[in-house]
Every structure is written in C-alpha cells, then in structure tokens.
Amino acid sequence: MKEKKHTINTLRILLLLLVVLISLRVQSQETKGFAYYDSLTYSLYTSGSWKELNAAGNEALDSGLDYYYLRARIAIALYNLRNYRAAVSQFEKAMEFNSNDPFVLQYLYYAYLEAGRSPDAVMLTSEHKQIIPTVPGVTGKFVKSIYTEGGITPDASPVLSASELLGTEGIYGESDVYKEQMYYHAGLNLQFLPAMSVYAGVSVLDLNKQHRFIFPFYNTQGHSSIKDTAINYQFRQSEFYFSASFLGRTGITITPAFHSLSGNPTLTYSTALGNSYNISEYKYRYNHYVFSLSGTKELGNFTLGLNGSYANLASTGSQKQVGTSLTWYPFGNLDLYATTSITGLMLEKTNKLIIDGSIGGKILPKVWLEGTYTGGGLSYYNEKNAFVAYNLSETINYRIGANLIYTLAPHLDLSLMYRFYERENEFLNAVINKDNGEIEIVSNKNKYQNYSFFGGLKWKF
Questions:
Q1: Could you list the pLDDT tens digit for every one of the 461 residues in the chain?
Q2: Residue 72 to residue 100: CA distance in whole angstroms
Q3: Cβ–Cβ contacts within 10 Å for residue 419, how many?
C-alpha cells in the first residue's frame, strides 16, 4: 500500500515538472518576440558583432518574423563578413519593404560589384541615379569601357629532316606548317539601355606559314637528286565580333553573339610533271562565321550557364555546339571562384566532348590570378560567347593557361595571359599500294607544343 502511494506521489511530481517546463517554454517563446529580436539585432549591429547578428537574424526569420530592419541588418552583417552574394539576397528582400532607402541602395550597389554582378549594379544605378555614387565602368554612361589586347605565338613548329618528310619509299613529301603569329584586338562596350549592353570589336591575326615540297629530281643524264623547296608566305585574318547582353529582373542574362573571320592567302600546290613536280600558286579566300546564344542564371553562390552555337569554320561542313557551365563562389565573393563547363561539339563526321575548367582568386588587394585547362580537342571550337573561335586547320589536343588581372587604377585594368598548347601538324608523303602498284598520298601526324603570350588593357568610364 505504501509502495502504491509512493508511486502516485512520484507521478505527481513528474507531472508538475512537466507543467513547469511547458510554462517556461511558452514564456520563453512569448519573450522572444518582435521586441526581443529587434532589440538584440540592433544591439549586435551597433557593436559590429556580425557573426552573432547573422545568427540572431536567421533565428528571428525562422521564428516567423520578417521586416525591413531585420533584413537590412542581416544583409549588412553578411556584407561585412564579405559574403556579398548572400548579402545581395537579403538587401533585395529589404527593398521589398522599402525600395528607396539610400543607405540600403548604396550597400546593395557595392554588394553587386563585389559579387561579380556589375550588370545588376548598372540597372540599380539607372533607377536611383541621384542616390548611388557610382564607380568607373558601372555608371550607366553610354560608353562603358574600351578594351584592347594583343599577343604573339612564337614559331615552335616541328622541323622534319628530308628523310622524315620524304618517307620510307623516297617518292614525295609535303608539309604546310604554322610559324609565328601576331594578334591584335580593339573593342567598345556600350550601354544602350539599363538592361542592354553591346560589345563590338575588330581583330587581326597575322599568320606566317611555310609550305615545303620534297621529291627526287632527275637531270637530263638521268641522274637523280633530292629537290627540297620551302616557300614562306604570310596572310592576315580579319575578324569582327559583336555581342549584346540583355539583363532580366530575376538574375537571368541572355547574350546573342556573332563572330566573322576572313582571309585571302596565296597558296602553293604541286602537280606531277613526268618524273618531277611543278609548283604553282593560287589565290584563295575564305569567310568563316559563328552565331552564338548563351544564357546565365544567378543562384546564390552559383552561376549556371547554358550556351549553343552554329558555325562554319572549315571549308567543308558546319559545326554545332551545345554546352553548360557552372561557376561557384564558395565564400560569396571574388576571393575564390571556380568554373567548369562541358560542351558537345558536333562536326560533319565526328562528335567530341570538350571539358573546360578554371580556378581563380585574389592573391593581393588589387591582383587576381587564374589557372585554366581545356581538353578534348579545340579545333573548330568556339568559347566565351564566340569571342574566341578556332578556325585554323591544325589540331589542338589541349590547352593550359594562366591569367593575371591587375587593377592599376579605378579606371584601368591590366591583364596578362599565357597559353600552352599541344598541337598536331599534318604532313604528307607518297607510298606504293602493294595491291595495285599505284602511288598513293598518305597523311601523317607530328605532335608538338607551342605557347602564346597576350596582354590586355581595359579603360573604364
């Protein structure tokens, strides 16, 4: 009987404790209402306790609170923590409550810039011209910037011996190799509308080549010797590039682009003439082009991209591309970023997959360094919204690069670029078909490496 009474008393005590805990919980929830979080976040804001402010602000949002000053304080905390992409989202939420506060508008403008979203900063400037103090290149002026770049690819072409080019049967050999190349570009970036910018530029590519013929030569007495003829020639490829970017309200940017490339080289060829060959010249003109369309979508600390193009970069057939890319900003700023893209290139007879990757970051207050890799075969490939188009006949197996970007002054950026390529050069020689005894021309590949140096200047208005 005593044990039963003791059990009942124990249950009563446990029930009482449960009631007290529930009461304390309810009282705590009632205490942590608007007044509590508003006072706490304001106190943390004035003391500059940014991590604590971000945590308290998100706790308030989870409890169901949402108002202008709460969003603004969270945004400013994230801005000072240098997570600019997350700050952008919170500033935009704050503007849904109050879209004309100069304090938040100016913070949002610089958050866009630090997040790498300068087109959004231009849009914001156009809507609040009297409030936002702008920086060069992101002012909403008609001329945004002037860009120029140039570079050199030194001669690193393979030099075949006479026996290598002539082949094992010693009948005939021929090669056409690229030597030194010089490249120049100049362009303008124009802001036609707040949501529309245009880039137009012209380029020239000066190409030096060598066409070589080797074959046995028989004199009037019937004695043979090797005739090795190397003809150096050069021509200029002229290029025009145009792109237009259209910015949407939801972080979407659509960019159509067009790139034309043309040249008029004087080529050489050989024709059989008895037991020898005759070398002749002829003029040839080509007109290549690329139509491209790309789109990007901002998704927090990521930028998702889709692209496609139709091109005619060869004498036979056309090229089609479809690709996707993803850029990641792990800290919500430009201190570190990485991009991966996968592109399917459909040629007339073959298809290939091109993988492109890059990683970059800030190494000094005004200096960024990037490393890049592209593999899968770059011949007849285009990239960067068709700004770069590979229309030359050599095979490029892969490319490794490095970029250095230095902000010399508020108006001026300097870029230095290095590219290393593995290429394959084609050469021809003659063999005798063992089945029918006829002479046939066969193609051979010679693998080699070369590199390019480029420099660029961007003046921002």
A1: 555 555 556 655 656 565 555 544 544 444 678 999 999 999 999 999 999 999 999 999 999 999 999 999 999 999 999 999 999 999 999 999 998 899 999 999 999 999 999 999 999 988 888 888 888 888 878 999 999 999 999 999 989 999 999 988 888 999 999 999 999 999 999 999 999 999 999 999 999 999 999 998 876 666 678 889 999 999 999 999 999 999 987 899 999 999 999 999 999 988 887 667 888 999 989 999 999 999 999 999 999 999 999 999 987 789 999 999 999 999 999 999 999 999 999 998 889 999 999 999 999 999 999 999 999 999 999 999 999 999 998 899 999 999 999 999 999 999 999 999 999 999 999 998 888 888 888 999 999 999 999 999 999 99
A2: 13
A3: 18
Cα–Cα distance between 129 and 288 in angstroms, integer?
43
Helix, strand, coil percentages (3-state) for the chain, rounded to 5, are 25, 50, 25
Amino acid at 92: E
Distance CA 210, CA 178 (A): 7
Residues 6+ apart with CB under 8 A from 60: 37, 41, 70
Element (H, E) at 25: helix 2-31
398: closest CA among 378, 383, 418? 378
Q: What is the pTM of this model?
A: 0.88
Give CA angle at 229 (223, 233), nearest 5°.
Answer: 165
> Encoding tokens for residue 43?
């106190």
Cα gap 71→107, rounded to integer Å = 13
For residues 437, 439, 441, 444, the Cα torsion angle rounded to the nearest 10 degrees is: 60
C-alpha 347/C-alpha 69 separation (Å) is 56
3-state secondary structure of 27: helix
> What single DSSP character describes residue 275?
T
User: Under a CB-based contact definition with an 8 Å cutoff, are residues 128 and 105 in contact?
Assistant: yes
Contact in structure between 305 and 295 (CB atoms under 8 Å): yes
Asked whether the beta carbons of 225 and 219 are under 8 A apart, the reply is yes
In sequence order, the 6+-apart residues with CB closer than 8 A to the CB of 289 are: 258, 259, 260, 261, 311, 312
